Amino acid sequence: MPGCHTPKEVLAKAIYLSTKASGFNPCESYSSSYLSQIKPKSRMKPLHRLNIIPSLPEQLTPLWDLGHNLWWSWSKEAIRILYQIAPEAWIASQRNPRRFWALLRPDQLDALIADEQLRSRIAHVVEQFEGYLSQPTWFGQTHGESRLQVAYFSAEFGLTESLRIYSGGLGV
Prior knowledge:
46% of the residues lie in helices and 0% in strands. The chain has helices spanning 7-17, 32-36, 61-66, 76-85, 87-92, 97-103, 106-114, 116-134, 138-143. The model is unreliable at 19-27 (pLDDT under 50).
């Protein structure tokens, strides 16, 4: 139809008019400046949230596990490797390993597996991580086989920028 507006403009106008009892003709002439001022009266809430979990090749699954532990955030070598894999994806993920893996394309993952030098560096970081996990902890030594679990959370320090903490102006 000649004179019709784009679907986005029609939708914006329809949302705006949904709270009013006036008619709406999508082909009526509206100036673009008028349409840009239209703001919906209410926001729709999402019905569903979809989390996409990437399927990593078997050789890279230890790095997925590493992303579930904050150990990587104080390992300079782990951070360096994640950055070198794909600098733009690392920055776009806000330096979050779990988001990072979701941003990589299959061809990038295949290139990682083919790069022998990078694979050996990844294996070294994974070995360091596994060594860290296998070390005895103070709690384990003090309380032995106790089933007691303790977690201490303090909003007075920042761990990493991918773990957002907004308190007391810290804003990491």
